[in-house]
Amino acid sequence: AAKHALQPLAPFRAEYRQAIERRTDLEQHLRVALQRHELRVALQPILHVHDLQVMGYEALARWIRPDGQFVSPAEFIAVAESTDLIHPLGRQMAHLALRALTRPGVPEHTCVTINVSAVQLGRAHYHEELTAQLRAANVPPNRLILEVTESAVINDQPTARRNLLALAETGVHIALDDFGHGYSSLKLLQMLPFTIVKIDAELMRSGMRDPTFLRAIIQVASATGASVVAEGVETDEQLRTLRDLNVPLAQGYLLGRPQLVEFPPDTLTKEAP
Ligand code: C2E
Ligand code: CA
Ligand code: CA
Ligand code: CA
Asked: In this protein, which residues make up the domain named EAL (predicted)?
């Protein structure tokens, strides 16, 4: 009887094997793509709600394979995080994001945010590497914002915390990403010097049906003294709600989609680590 019960699992095993094969294929190709500096950066604007001026840009990794196939960041970031590839990926993204800031025509006050994963923050020398990159790019630390998720800080607390405190000391801003998603711990808001809290896009969506919870989350985030950014703003109605709730900053398709940055091709491979 027990043997019988297991039989329906056979098709699942085939799917599971396919998933593993896909992952292995992605890992091999991602490794090559990083060696060749084929990853690119897209910038999405973060705007002041009151006058719609640009405060800065979030840097988002983009991978278009040589055959033209687009791989979603959610998929390749997960592959990178489960291997050693997240370190070169993170360095290349920081390099591209900082370079994007120093292009002609970008105002001096504009900031850039980069996403940093738990695996990167778990390395003791992360803060030194990033500080060296800032110096090499000649960008003042206060124009850089690090976006970290809760899990990034909770998984390897002591080292992650040390890295973030050391960077905050130099003037780099720390943002708590996806706040209001999953189990948001209020304790964490007290433990680290976040200057920005980003409200999760899903909470924005559900907040349009019933704003009670959204309003409470925004109040908690603001009470820490951090600037609140609402993510995933897609409609005028959402923007009006943000004005009513006195949310200072917003990001989303309504205000600007992520746009690929074009760099002169020859300068890339020479400078990137
Ligand atoms: P995230 O950090 O929460 O980034 C926001 C995601 O929402 C981006 O997806 C962005 O394109 C998308 N988005 C922006 N505005 C809207 C909107 O109005 N509506 C909707 N539906 N979506 C919107 P993307 O670029 O696919 O990135 C997915 C995730 O991959 C990011 O989520 C982040 O966790 C991760 N990621 C991307 N680039 C990097 C990177 O360089 N390093 C690390 N560690 N993670 C990255
Ligand atoms: Ca982010
Ligand atoms: Ca986010
Ligand atoms: Ca996310």
From this structure: 23-272
